[in-house]
Amino acid sequence: MRTLEKLGRWLYDRSRLAPLVRKLLTHGVPAEVARSRKGWFYVFGQALVFLFLLQVVTGSGLAMAYVPAPAFAWDSLRYMNEEMFLGAFLRAVHFVGASAMVLLAFVHMTRVFLTGSFKFPRELNWISGALLLFLVLAMAFTGQLLRWDQDGVWTVMVAAQFVGRAPFVGEQLMQILLGGETLGGATLTRFFTLHVVIFPLLIAGIMVFHVYLVFQNGISEPPRAGRPVDKATYRDEYRELVEEGGARHWPDAAWRELVFVAATLLVVFGLAWMIGPQGPGPAPDPTALEADPRPDWYFRWYYALIWLKPQALDELVLVWFPLAVGVALLALPILFGEGERAPSRRPWAVLLVAMTVLGWGTLTGFGLRPHWVPLFETTAPSEEALEGAPAAAREGAQIFFERGCQYCHQVQGLGGIYGPDLTMVTRRMSPEEVAVRTVIGVRNMPAYYGVLTADEMDRLVAYLRWAAGEER
Ligand code: HEC
Predict the structure, then answer these.
(1) Does residue 250 sit in the same domain as residue 148?
(2) Hey, which of 44, 51, 272, 386 has its CA 20 to 30 A from 133?
(3) How far is the CA of 418 from the centre of ligand 1 (A)?
(4) Atom 5 of ligand 1: nearest residue by CA position
(5) Distance of CA 113 to the CA centre of its chain
(6) Total number of domains in the chain
(7) How far does the centroid of ligand 1 lie from the alpha carbon of residue 443, in Å?
(8) Which tens digits make up the pLDDT trace of 140-190?
(9) Is the CB of 407 under 6 A from ligand 1?
(10) What is the b/e burial string over 261-273, where b = at least 16 CB atoms within 10 angstroms of the residue's CB?
């Protein structure tokens, strides 16, 4: 006992950590955060810190069994799933934990945005938070490739193509991303290093700075309409508020954080237990045409957007849109550092959040639909569907099905939606144009030159004209 006490004294004396920890834990917070239900809006950041720690722990476990080489990566994941002690559960927790981090990062950011907590003097809190968000997304993105299955490899392949289209520096950026001209072993090693060393270190560093700023500037008080932030007076007002209220972070406010952290971890473990590890899906195979590769859920909306946009907007959606969002996020507290904080006085901010959530939900919903590749399970139109069609149109329908047009094109609701719906195509373009388009092909549309006879083409057009209601 004596020795322990001595050791304790020695540690205390040489490190002087205890007073610092005590000071941090008991720093003052606005009474409203500590004593009212509004305190529940202030718990997300803490949960993110714990989720990050969870990712470090589970990730370290995974890294011990993972082999970052194309020939072995996929097998090493299979090994974890099937043979390693707790390997499958560890992978599941790591995936669900990552999902939770992405989700909570957005929830946390939305809360801070809506309550105007990014305004003076907390601009740097927001900017470092935005950097953390980018890094969390970068972790999600690099993590996908480490799975080294069809989905992961394909996602990065597509992303690399986007990056390659960026103006001026596209080519170079793509080579840096892939570690060469094409996606291969060098890419995997590179992503592994980024995912396991570089990004986590950056996250840890910026996170410490972020938390330090939260102590330094204090937790923002719940906003009140008609009490705008004024740089000249805010700090004094805040000091008064915190000193008057007399609430302490520990234990007045911290218990809510701990309850939320515990609940979050429980949900993550529970979900991981229920859904099990994510993949690996089929091993990457460039010849597997019928595969339906898709990114993890957090990037689905963006893929849907890429899919839906007209070709002419390529550069806008792929390059300028993400760039603009990034710059806007970083510039926000500088541009709007003062003024009203209450959401009721910031209708545009509320509208922006509502539109973002709506747009995200819609696009994600669309991204869940199977249309990324041709739909091979389609069947020829039934007798009822062709009721009343002239003979040429009937034959055309058969050709449309047999020649595979229907894999990619819908007519009257039947077929894939990889290409545009052709129900009304003869109203958009003349029969000659339809024939020319079909024979020559356009971008993702294969050329049917030499495959279809002129006679077959006539019947196809007859079918399409009948479908458009032009020949009834
Ligand atoms: C592998 C999928 C695929 C197959 C198979 C396919 N198409 Fe297409 N088709 C597309 C895509 C994608 C486009 C849009 C091209 C673009 O603008 O990038 C398209 C465009 C078209 C267009 C122009 C439509 C418009 O509104 O601009 C016509 C006409 C057309 N296809 C007819 C056909 C016919 C007829 C067949 C069968 C003989 C066929 N396609 C087979 C994918 C396909």
Answers:
(1) yes
(2) 272
(3) 9
(4) 405
(5) 19
(6) 2
(7) 9
(8) 999 988 988 877 887 787 777 777 777 778 788 888 888 887 788 888 999
(9) yes
(10) beebbeebbebbe
